[in-house]
Amino acid sequence: MYAVNFLILAAVLFSIGVFGVIARRNAVMVLMSIELILNSVNLNLIAFAMMNNSPEGHVFALYVIAVAAAEVGIGLAMVLMIYRNRRSIALDELSVMKG
Amino acid sequence: MSSMLAADVNVAQNVGFYIIAAIMVFGALRVVSGRNVVHAALWLVVVLGGVAAQYLLAAAEFVAISQVMVYIGAVMVLFLFGIMLTRATIGEESDLNNKNWSIGIPVSLLLAGTLVWVIVDQYRGEVLASPDEPMSTTAISDVFLREGLVPFLALSFVLLAAAIGAIVLARKD
Amino acid sequence: MLGATLSSGWFLENAWLIPLVPAIGFVFIILFGKKMPQNGSEIGIVSIGISLAISIGATFQWIDRVNSASGGSDYASGGFFGAFRAIFPTAADGGYGASFVEPVVKSWTWWQSGGLEFGLGQHIDGLAIMLLLLVTFISFLVQIYSTEYVSGDRRYTHFFASLTLFSAGMLVMVLAENMLQLILGWEIMGLCSFMLIGHWWEEEANSRAALKAFFTVRVGDVGLLVGTAIIFFGANDWAVEHGSNGFSIRGISAWALSGEASQSVLFWGGVALFIASIGKSGQFPLHTWLPDAMAGPTPVSSLLHSSTMVVAGVFLVARLYPVFFVGFDILDTTVNFITIIGGITIIVAAALAFVQDDIKKVLAYSTVSQLGYMMLGLGVGAWLPAVFHIFTHAFFKCALFLGAGSISHSGSHHSFDMKKDMGGLAKKMPITAATWMVSTAALCGIPFFSGFFSKDEIIDNASHNGYQFFYYVALVGAFMTPAYMTRATYLTFFGKPRGAAAGEHHDEGHDDAHGTAHADHDDHHDDAHDDHGAHDDHGAHHGPHESPWRITAPLIVLSILAIGSGYLNAPAFGTHYFTDWVEPVGVEVALDDEYGHSSGEEESAGIVFAAVQAGDEEYDGKAKGCGFADPSEGTVCYAPKLSHAVFSWSKAMPSIILVFAGILFSAWVCMGIYGDRRNPFAGLTSKFAPARWIHTLLVNKYYLDHLYEKVIVFAFAHPIARAAYWVNQNILDGIVNNVGRGGRRTGEWVYRNVDQRVVDGAVNASGLAASEGGHALQPVQSGKVNQYGALLFGAATVGAIVLILVNI
């Protein structure tokens, strides 16, 4: 197994997630893209754990998973609130913070 | 290619990896470029499963199981609930991309290119030894409860806060 | 005689109190006068009285001193008669001393600068004593007179204040130890003259007269300053060598006679100083102010402009006589500057006195003429007769003026016009008339009155000293003086009463006449008008009457003196007390070997005497002595040795004849012109054209006023004023305007180009840049999550690339 495999895979997933964050209009889609990013990070961590043969990578990956879960919960709660107020979750229309 | 036949390379492992990686990438692409929100969620499930499979290849069994349980089991369900509650149209939907979506292409390509170049530059040809046995849960928990105790407890707070926050945010007052 | 110690005394040593007391009196009158019961006049009278007392004491002590210098200790034998003989020694007692009498000199240094010491002091010698006594006495009488004459005046207190200050100023000048003090006193007198002439300044004529007096005298004062400076620079070196300085009168006198003085310095210094005398003493051509000064109240005219202030010029020449003696070479020539001016003045003023209607103006011109006599006397080398004439003239002229005041006060109802309001007053005002007659007789030089003894000596000495031409001039003056005085006397006291003297003044017309005459007057009709006294006795009497005692008493005193003062120096009767006491003896005086420097305020500064020497005792005129030969080694001269003409009745005959001729001629003419008798003189000016021309010339005062005011002043002032105005309007204002215009145009240009375009442009551009920059950057903050994500990741990517590139 080549070391570069995991890392390149993670990089590609990361990029695709970035693309999703930039391009997608639906707030939920953006959150999904963020999940892609987080998973790519996890892959990296596990890869490095394997390289160094240490459990800390795994621990960290578990942290990430837990935090990701919390974040998705909050994020979706916010999306729901936005949907309640505006009847739409298209991020294009959410520009009240425009400066 | 000849490197694939090098002595230390576990060919089977590599091949398996590539197949799963291809499926993952394809799925990820379908997530970000599909027209159907529900389909995108389901493709995300595919990606997450692929990630779990990669974990197994990397001898991270505990993390793989956690991934399946938490991510696919909870997070994705949450996503689907969210999609449902926000009345996403079942079926095709136009205009899922915003106005300036095209700027994402160069950004992501550049990012990917940079990262890949760095990785290849550093780790070219390095072969990971396949582990004899998967990472033991004991070792992980040891780290959790020794060095990583504070983050572990903090994490519990985070989750608590998230739970409370989600409830507060989402109640209909 | 050698080594006789001179007696001194408290009064002589402290004679500096004499001017000090009236000066303090002046301050008190200003501060407290209005609150006093007599409105300040009591302070004035008391202060002058104290000065008079001190002066009398000083006079006695000076006489003692003179006698002691001539070895007069023999007379100290007892009793009243011993003292009387001590004062009036007869020739048998050998009292005709010819020793130098050292003056009592003190000085206090006020300020030193560069080796010069300026100070005040006293220089008491015979001349100073005479004038101190004279000024204080006349001031005292005039102040008593004024309490009646000026009573009820609106500025009564200030009148007495000015009068007292004047006395203080003149006394300062008289006993001045140095030229600066003399100038100080001179200026104080000028100021007081201005204030007093313009006492009723509400009338424009009075204030103009005051200004004219002041400015005319000022023209002369330039000469005083220039002369003092010239003499100072000439005398200082020599004087400092001998322990004095260039301002000290003693130093200047000694320097002038030392033979080391440059003749031209003395000449020009003398000319400059004499110009000051011309102004102050009303000599031709600066005499024009004196008649106009009659606009002041009559006490002022009698004190300032007849007896005391106007003789300041004569005093100046007499005081610094060595300067003039050597500078004008008085005893070696037959004509000099002083005699020319004096002679012209005598004739010119006497002629003008003939055509005056105002009685005070007659007396004013008479004063100018008599001052001309005094100057003539000094100019011909007759020092003592001229000074004696000051003395006698003061008494009878003051009496004449006070008499004129008495007439106006009680006889002519405040008018001084002889033709309109006087006439026939001899019966109504006997005392005034009698004193007037006596004083006129003294003025005319009728024998046995005082004026004869003084004026005749001047005339005699003029020919004795070789000034033959001026002898004749003086004789002509001696004819004219009684002539105009007879005319004035006739118009005033004889003939038919006219106008107010006839009792004509109407109550209802009274206020109108006053109103029209004093158009801009305020409502206080009981205030004094230009020559008027109070109307306190208005309702009680009508018609002329004799004046109250406060007016007539001084008149009587003065007229007694007008007779008696002459006998102090009547050569006809062998008395020469005045000569003994006043004339400085022109002998050489030894200097002390060590020059005393003043170690305290009490010592006399300067030249100290070891012993006094007697000089020639014979009056043989021009042989030798001070002023003719240089003083010998170790001695100085303080006064020139002058000779005196010996009196004889035969020499006096011409003037006596002329006097009586004048009286008779004038009486005849007057009776013709003004009286009933028809004689050839009646209507002369209308029949005979040259007479008319002369009359017009005289009435217009030789057109001198016209010359001064309209020609000289106008010629100087007008072009200067026009030039100054032109410079101001065109150059100065032009500069200012152009600067203003230039400034404005520059401002506008700067505004348009720099301010609007450059500065505002920069400012606007910066603002525009900021706002446009903001506008340009605004899309970054779109509020859109996707975009923020794009930026975030894009920036991170770029950062990573940079990091990689840097670390390659």
Topology:
The complex is a heterotrimer of chains A (99), B (173) and C (808).
Chain A: H1 3-23, H2 27-52, H3 56-86
Helix pairs in contact in A: 1-2, 2-3
Chain B: H1 11-33, H2 37-57, H3 61-85, H4 104-123, H5 137-145, H6 149-170
Helix pairs in contact in B: 1-2, 2-3
Chain C: H1 10-13, H2 17-32, H3 41-69, H4 79-87, E1 104-113, E2 116-124, H5 126-149, H6 156-174, H7 179-197, H8 204-241, H9 249-256, H10 263-280, H11 289-292, H12 298-307, H13 312-319, H14 321-327, H15 337-353, H16 359-379, H17 383-410, H18 418-421, H19 430-444, H20 450-464, H21 468-493, H22 507-517, H23 549-564, H24 577-582, E3 588-591, E4 609-612, E5 635-637, H25 649-674, H26 684-687, H27 689-699, H28 704-777, H29 785-806
Antiparallel strand pairs in C: 1-2, 3-4, 3-5
Helix pairs in contact in C: 2-3, 2-6, 3-5, 3-6, 5-6, 5-12, 5-17, 5-23, 6-7, 7-8, 8-9, 8-10, 9-14, 10-13, 10-14, 12-16, 12-17, 15-16, 15-21, 16-17, 16-20, 16-21, 17-19, 17-20, 17-23, 19-21, 19-23, 20-21, 21-25
Q: Summed up, what is this model?
A:
The complex is a heterotrimer of chains A (99), B (173) and C (808). By secondary structure, chain A is mainly alpha-helical.
- What is the domain total for the residues of chain B? 2
CATH architecture of the largest domain in chain B: Up-down Bundle
Strand order of the largest sheet of chain C: 4-3-5
Given the helix and strand composition of chain B, which structural class is it? mainly alpha
Q: Which structural class do you get from the secondary structure elements of chain C?
A: mainly alpha
H/E element sequence of chain B: HHHHHH
> How is the CATH topology of the largest domain in chain B named?
Four Helix Bundle (Hemerythrin (Met), subunit A)
Estimate percent helicity of chain C: 55-70%
Report the span from N to C terminus of chain C: 134 Å
CATH class wording of the largest domain in chain B: Mainly Alpha
State the low-pLDDT regions of chain B, or none. 1-6
State the fourth-level CATH superfamily of the largest domain in chain B: NADH-ubiquinone/plastoquinone oxidoreductase chain 6, subunit NuoJ
**Can you give the mean pLDDT of chain C?**
81
Could you say which overall geometry of chain C the principal axes of the C-alpha atoms support?
elongated
Approximate helicity band of chain B = 55-70%
Residue-averaged pLDDT of chain B: 86
Biggest interface: A-B, 71 and 93 residues
Q: How many helices of chain B?
A: 6
